[in-house]
Amino acid sequence: EGPSQRVTEGQGHQAYARGGVVPTKVFQRTDKAYPMLRYPWADARAALEALAVDRPDQEAVQVTYVNPETGKDAENILGFYALMLRPGQTLRLPARSPAQVFHVIEGAVQAHIVERQFTLAEADTCCAPGYEAVTLTNLNADQPAFVFIADESPLHRKLGVYENRG
Questions:
Q1: Order of strands, edge to edge, in the sheet holding 109-113?
Q2: What pLDDT is stored for residue 69 in this prediction?
Q3: Angle subtended at Cα 132 by Cα 127 and Cα 138, rounded to the nearest 5 degrees
Q4: pTM of the model
Q5: Could you give the strand order of the β-sheet that contains 125-128, starting from the edge strand earlier in sequence?
Q6: Cβ(150)–Cβ(101) below 8 Å
Q7: Which among 103, 101, 85, 97 is positioned nearest to 141, based on CA atoms?
Q8: From 54's CA, which of 19, 115, 158, 164 has a CA 20 to 30 Å away?
């Protein structure tokens, strides 16, 4: 007998409304390497918003684009992520081995990269070299900001050179 499990209030099912299920044709699953080539932004945005509501204490509200059949990265070489910065939030991303590309989908973001500040509006893109921490700040105090991130972490993991230096 151990202590009772602590129950945390929330709507976890909303963050995973369609996760964990894949279409099958009479018990046969696809063997395509990339069964899903289009990832609608509306779905990623809805997942981020649901995650933010369900886990208000979680510092980073981020989702990873994955192959729905395998759960692995959506592509073999590139990793893709969507990040939501809460209103006025500043988030320090860890120094990792892959370089990163940041693209602002909605909102206004300030990126601090290697002693430089970049102010990004919707549709702006910037990049950061590998092994550098990045700090992102949502410049809007009343609206979230949404950022799409791409990096080479899947390739780095395959080559055995991936590092997260915190």
A1: 90-93, 134-138, 109-113, 116-120
A2: 82
A3: 60
A4: 0.86
A5: 61-64, 79-85, 145-151, 100-106, 125-128
A6: yes
A7: 85
A8: 164
